[in-house]
Amino acid sequence: MTSKKLVNSVAGCADDALAGLVACNPNLQLLQGHRVALRSDLDSLKGRVALLSGGGSGHEPAHAGFIGKGMLTGVIAGAVFTSPAVGSILAAIRAVAQAGTVGTLLIVKNYTGDRLNFGLAREQARAEGIPVEMVVIGDDSAFTVLKKAGRRGLCGTVLIHKKLIPSLPSTHSWYSDSFPPGAYLCVGAGGRCPGRGRCGAGGDHKSGTLGVSLASCSVPGSKPTFELSADEVELGLGIHGEAGVRRIKMATADKIVAIMLDHMTNSSNVSHVPVQSGSSVVLMVNNLGGLSFLELGIIADAAVRSLEGRGVKIARALVGTFMSALEMPGISLTLLLVDEPLLKLIDADTTASAWPNMAKVSVTGRTWIRAAPTEPLEAPDSTATGGTDSKQMVLVLERVCTTLLGLEEHLNALDRAAGDGDCGTTHSRAARAIQGWLKEGQPPASPAQLLSKLSLLLLEKMGGSSGALYGLFLTAAAQPLKAKTDLPAWSAAMDAGLEAMQKYGKAAPGDRTMLDSLWAAGQELQAWKSPGANLFQILTKAVKSAEAAAEATRNMEAGAGRASYISSARLDQPDPGAVAAAAILRAILEALQGQGA
């Protein structure tokens, strides 16, 4: 079965993708009749060197996203995972030559098709009298033994786009558009620079890239290129959906990153990067296309910790999508050994849209954690009672926690019908946070302080809209209890909590939310304001009303919350938030009854 893709046609997807990038970027232009993007200020480059790169489409934002001052002059794109046509490469060379540039440097990833097509275009252009040089980039660190084809060109190529600045050959006065004459030229595997140079991508092992993926990708109109079992990941794969050098068992992000760095820096690996304690590197954490930003951040954190744990100084870190493989859910790590001259090239300004706005300071050695703010001192509370009431509060909270933990799967099942299926998980997270807090010591004896502490705890640990709503409710409910803690004060506390939930949550009774249960209970608790009110009699009625209201949400149309976006007008299950709120009230009642309070 072919994968689903949002394209107009399989045949035209590469053209449409490049056209979309150019249409939204005033600094770019398309070359008529060719799949070529060029700087729109091409005529301003008279007397300077043009830097052209390219390859198959499907690696976006590479390479067209790196066109701009300080990086590429233009890009020639092929069909998906297909080398660009010789005629288009030659047309790009002619275009920059006719704009007045004094020569062209072709930056080519080390793949057979790219070498052949760019090489043939170079020979044809030189036959026309156009000065053209070519450098072939190979930064792959996957292979432990030398391959005849050499190291593949991977994400390290992007760093070459940034720092490959022509120097002054003897035959021409070549200048870059952003750097002074005499700037160093970095070269890669098999490449020859037209002047003196500093190697940085593969040829002298100054950089290396290694990829890992959870699954394959699929070319538009085709099936995935390989299959992985649920407990496997692919290590050392390329950027065209091809399989890697070996498969490893699924593991934590920390473990996967450690395996990758071990492989990349192992001296017995012919394609290793000689990174050791004391080395200074640029780290590139590249999304291969389908990894979530959440996972990307986790991988970045693991890479920084692992490298610094090995004594490696991270001079700069780039995290994002730089060279993808369509929708492949994986990452690649690139390490580039650097010194101050190379860092100046990495740090130099560029207008390329895909180059990150990166801080020009070292990652290693900076202070990146600020001390937490001090909490205000608590004012004395006149409602604080003795140890007996505090122990009762502990028993009530423990009963609530046990109830919520027991309901986790049930609440998740209810939530899957209208949300993301995590209502039970969220409430269980709150229950475990409260249990942990109780183990740390006795809770405050003051009801107002207790509710305030619980509010802060849930806001921090529970998460989601439920955590915010409970936090609001408890914060507001605590206020009336600062002066008194009799039954009328508890009724007023319920009123204050409900008012805060409605004010900020925008829900109303009947909207099929947790408010329905709490509102029904609150109406019954109004009776606490009457002289001689009976605690248990009224609380029992309140709990039964809350449970009935929760069940009634089964037949309600959702007017607020995530369920309100569900296409069906009515849902056939009760709202999980309302069920949870009613269960909390039931747990409180039963805990109090058990103590004879």
Short description:
The chain has 597 residues and is α/β, with parallel strands linked by helices. It has helices at residues 13-23, 86-98, 112-127, 156-163, 253-265, 293-309, 340-347, 387-406, 408-416, 423-440, 447-461, 464-478, 487-505, 514-525, 535-552, 576-595, and strands at 28-30, 36-39, 49-57, 74-80, 103-109, 132-137, 207-213, 232-235, 246-249, 280-287, 313-320, 330-337. Strands 1-2-4-3-5-6 form a 6-stranded mixed sheet, sandwiched between helices. A 6-stranded mixed sheet has the order 9-8-7-12-10-11, covered by helices on one side.
Task: Provide key terms for this protein.
six-stranded mixed beta sheet; 597 residues; 16 helices
Task: Tell me about this structure.
With 597 residues, this protein is of the alpha/beta class. The chain has helices at residues 13-23, 86-98, 112-127, 156-163, 253-265, 293-309, 340-347, 387-406, 408-416, 423-440, 447-461, 464-478, 487-505, 514-525, 535-552, 576-595; strands spanning 28-30, 36-39, 49-57, 74-80, 103-109, 132-137, 207-213, 232-235, 246-249, 280-287, 313-320, 330-337. The strands form two sheets. Strands 1-2-4-3-5-6 form a six-stranded mixed sheet, sandwiched between helices. Strands 9-8-7-12-10-11 form a six-stranded mixed sheet, covered by helices on one side. Helix 5 (253-265) crosses helix 6 and helix 10 (423-440) crosses helix 11. The longest helix has 20 residues, at 387-406. The model is unreliable at 166-203 (pLDDT under 50). It holds the Pfam family Dak2. One of its GO terms (cellular component) is cytosol. One of its GO terms (molecular function) is glycerone kinase activity. This is Triokinase/FMN cyclase isoform X1.
